[in-house]
């Protein structure tokens, strides 16, 4: 079993090394064209975010109604379980356990990938939590008030500590897409992008348990993927200077 794990890990390392070599301009691998300006990438993400948000807002009530009309007890239990184990503390716990394992195995690439996953998930989760605390959007399961945006203060009370007013965007979803999306940006292979199925399952669970609107989840997914790319491209190279990474294979 240990040999199989080592072979799989070594294969992952070789894939990333090949990608790095392929990305380096050389007589055998000339550059395909000029790189995009640094300001253009965030602008593209912003446009995507706006388009996705508009689509989400348009379909919000339709999705809420469809889910309400197809509630099945055992599916609810599955969604609740996924939602419970797909939050930031749990994802960070899984990553820490795996990080210890690959650290002892001295696998440099995997150490860097997992550290980036932790950083990306934390940044995305932190931003979305800050936004949803201030937006004050009532959750779909909030029966106290009509659906709407109530900000920080409503009817003489602060809403910062009111869970049912923290709908937009979904913290679970943003963290999950940043966490698992980092694998895709690191390896850029179909199998690596397939980890987004796990992130999508977490986003779906938040919809099914009636904790979020469709737009909450879509916007959070875009935010998560943005931080996944940003972390891998900006923080990833800086992590090479860490002793934990340097001392690994």
Q: What key phrases describe this protein's structure?
A:
single chain, 249 residues, mainly alpha, Vanadium-containing Chloroperoxidase, domain 1, two-stranded antiparallel sheet, 10 helices, globular
Strand order of the largest sheet: 1-2
Uncertain runs are 19-34
Order of helices and strands: HHHHHEEHHHHH
Query: What is the CATH T-level topology?
Result: Vanadium-containing Chloroperoxidase, domain 1
Radius of gyration: 20 Å
Question: What is the tally of beta strands?
Answer: 2
Mean pLDDT score = 85
Instruction: Give the helix tally.
Output: 10
Biggest sheet descriptor: 2 strands, antiparallel
Question: What's the topology here?
Answer:
Elements: H1 2-23, H2 40-68, H3 73-85, H4 88-104, H5 108-135, E1 153-154, E2 157-158, H6 171-187, H7 190-193, H8 196-208, H9 214-239, H10 243-246
Antiparallel strand pairs: 1-2
Helix pairs in contact: 2-9, 3-8, 4-5, 5-6, 5-9, 6-8, 6-9, 8-9
């Amino acid at each position: 079993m240990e040999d199989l794990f080592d072979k799989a890990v070594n294969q992952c390392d070789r894939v990333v090394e090949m990608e790095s070599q392929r990305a380096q301009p050389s007589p055998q691998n000339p550059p395909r064209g000029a790189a995009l300006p640094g300001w253009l990438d965030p602008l593209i993400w912003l446009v995507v975010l706006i388009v996705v948000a508009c689509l989400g807002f348009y379909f919000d009530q339709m999705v809420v109604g469809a889910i309400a009309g197809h509630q099945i007890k055992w599916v609810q239990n599955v969604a609740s379980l996924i939602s419970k184990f797909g939050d930031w503390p749990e994802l960070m716990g899984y990553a820490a356990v795996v990080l210890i394992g690959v650290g002892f195995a001295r696998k440099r690439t995997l150490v860097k990938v997992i550290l980036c996953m932790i950083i990306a998930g934390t940044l995305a989760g932190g931003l979305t939590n800050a936004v949803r605390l201030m937006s004050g959007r009532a959750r779909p399961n909030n029966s106290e008030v009509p659906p709407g945006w109530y900000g920080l203060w409503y009817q003489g009370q602060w809403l910062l500590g009111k869970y049912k007013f923290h709908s937009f965007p979904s913290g679970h979803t943003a963290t999950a897409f940043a966490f698992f999306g980092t694998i895709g940006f690191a390896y850029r292979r179909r199998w690596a992008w397939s980890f987004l199925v796990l992130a999508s399952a977490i986003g779906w669970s938040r919809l099914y348990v009636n904790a979020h609107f469709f737009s909450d989840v879509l916007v959070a997914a875009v935010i998560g993927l943005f931080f996944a790319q940003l972390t891998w491209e900006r923080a990833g190279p800086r992590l090479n200077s860490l002793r934990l990474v340097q001392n690994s294979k």
